[in-house]
Amino acid sequence: MNESDANRVFAHRHLLGIEGLSPLEISLILDRSEVYVTQNRQANKKRHLLSGRTIINLFFEESTRTRTSFDAAAQRMGADVITMNVPTSSVKKGETLIDTAMTLNAMHPDVLVVRHNQSGAVKLLSEKVHSAVINAGDGAHEHPTQALLDALTIRRRKGHLDNLVVAICGDITHSRVARSNIHLLNTMGARVRLIAPRTLIPRGIEALGVEVHHDMRRGLADCDIVMMLRLQKERMQANYFPSIREYFHFFGLDYDKLSAAKPDALIMHPGPMNRGVEIDSEVADDIGRSVIREQVEMGVAVRMAVLELLAANLPPLREAR
Ligand code: ASP
Known about the structure:
Elements: H1 3-9, H2 23-40, E1 54-59, H3 65-76, E2 80-84, H4 97-106, E3 111-116, H5 121-126, E4 132-138, H6 144-158, E5 165-169, H7 176-187, E6 191-195, E7 211-213, H8 216-220, E8 225-228, H9 244-251, H10 255-258, E9 266-268, H11 281-284, H12 292-311
Parallel strand pairs: 1-2, 1-3, 3-4, 5-6, 5-8, 6-7, 8-9
Helix pairs in contact: 2-6, 2-12, 3-12, 6-7, 6-12
The structure holds aspartic acid.
Residues 137, 143, 176-177, 230, 232, 270-271 line the site of aspartic acid (ASP).
C-alpha cells in the first residue's frame, strides 16, 4: 500500500477514539500493524517514513507502557520525539490546557500524543492545535490504541474478530479501555459481555450493544477471550466493594472461574495489573493462556501504524534550505 491508498481509506486528521471508525479503517490499521510486528522482530527496527517530523508526547497523567510504547514507535518511524515531563512543567503552575496548546503550537509539532485525566480534554486540545492528535487515554472515555493493540493480539491468535465472545471483566465504570474495546469489538462483529459488580458498571450500558453479567462463572461461560481490567482506585470517590479479599473472591480471575470459559480462551489485561486483586498471579503468568506480554509487543506496532496513517494526511514536508 502506498501513501495515497492510506490517505483514501483513513481520512482522519486525528485519532481521538474508536467510536465512529469503520470496520475498513480498523482493519487497515491492523493490517499496517502487521508490517511493523515483523519489522520490530528484526535487528534493524528503524524506518524513515517520519523523518523530519516532530512528535510531542504530552502526558498529564501517569503512564509507563503507553508512553514508552509511543516513544519507541515514533523513534522507529524516524521522527524526532519530545516527551513532556508534565509534573515539572508549567501545568503545575496553573497554566491551562489551552495555554499549553498555544505553547505547543509555537513549537510546530506534527503529531501530539496526549493523555489527560479528564474525558474530552484531548478532543478539546485537538481543536486548538495545528497538529494531528492521538488520544493516549482521556479520563474514563477512550484509549483507542489500547483497543487496537488488543484487537491485533486477538486477531493474530484467533485469526478473526467476528463472532468471538469477549468478556470484559472488572471496573467498567472507570475504564476507558473497556469503552474503546466495546466500540471496536462491536464494530468488528464480536459479541461483548461485561462482567462486574453492580457498583462498577454504568447503568444503561446495555444500550451500547453489550450483555451485562454480575456473576463471573455465568458471564465467562464458553467465551473466547477473557479481558481483565484493573481496579482504578485513583478514580474512585467512594467505596465500591467491601474489601479487596471479597472482590477477588467474586470477581478475581483464578483457574476455578476460568474453567467456565472455552479451554482455549485467551487471558488479557491492559496493565498495570493488581496481582491478587483482579487477577491471580499464576493465571496472569500462564504462558499457555495469557497473552499479556504479547499485548505490550503489539502496542508498539499499532502505534507505528497509527503514526504512519496520520502522517500520510499531514501537509507534505518541504526540503529545508
Ligand atoms: N493502562 C490503561 C489505561 O491507561 C489501563 C489502566 O490504567 O488500568 O487506561
